[in-house]
Structure formats: structure tokens, C-alpha cells
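sorry for the late reply, my laptop died twice this morning and i had to redo everyting from scratch. anyway the thing you sent over, i finally got around to it. pasting the sequence first so we're on the same page, its 156 residues, then the predicted structure underneath. double check i copied it right bc i was rushing
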Amino acid sequence: MADLKAGDKAPQFTLPRDGGGSVSLAEQSGKKVVLYFYPKDNTEGCTIEAIDFTRLLPEFEAAGAVVIGMSPDSVKKHDNFCKKHGLGIILASDESTETLASYGVWVEKSMYGKKYLGVERTTVLIGADGVILKVWPKVKVAGHAEEVLEAVKSLQ
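ok and here's the structure:
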């Protein structure tokens, strides 16, 4: 498991995305990237987070940042999630969980005494040069998108 921190080079990825095609970190070169990891489409916290990032997307773009959400859900689930909630952010599908693991967010979790592997809600801000600028581990959804936006704006 990776324990990524500010100053580390962000792991590269190319993954299928909502709407078809793929998204890669390399193609975002020259832009700041807000890469947020979330457990599952259409669950309460994940829906609120996606809607918040979509609502603030024009401000992220004005600050020179792209927003990418990533979960182990399929592209089909991402497409349904986007359509249902009018999402405008990029959603990457990591069904193999390899990229999630490379970022250290595919972890053992526990619910009702049962252990399972899942995504630890985390956001990583990556600079235009591909170096991690900030990591928000174990994210609490309320106000998070606004906090990330403030961090992005402070870099201008």
C-alpha cells in the first residue's frame, strides 16, 4: 500500500471513463488535478460529494484544475450515476483496483465485524508537474469540495 504525501510523484494511470473513452493523468499535464477517490456510485456520501464537485466545477476550471472522481464501479454504473444526478465531472472506473491500490486508498475496512476491501475516501491534489501538492485522507464529505477549491485557488 502506498503512503503518498505532498512532494511524491503521483502514480500514472489510464482508465476507462464515463461517456466512453479513457482518462489518463498524463493527458492532464500542465493542469492541476483534483483526484478524489470514493467508494460507490449512488450512495449518500458519494452522491453529495459528486454533486458538490460538479457544482463548483466552473470555479475549479477557472483556477486551472480538472476534477476526476475514481471508484471501482463500472463505466455503465458511472454513466447511470452521471445521468441521474446531472454530474459534469470526469468519473474514472478502476474495476481492477490497481490504481486505487497504487494511491493507497484500496484498504481493509470493517463493518458490523466483517472485514472487506474497499475505498477509503481520499482526495489528492496534483500539481501541473505531476507532483502531489496535498492529500486529504479519510474525507468527511460536508464542505470538502469547498475546502479543496480553496486549496486550488491558493496556488494561483
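Strands lie at 14-16, 22-24, 32-37, 65-71, 90-93, 106-111, 114-119, 122-126, 132-136.
thats about all i looked at so far, will dig more tmrw
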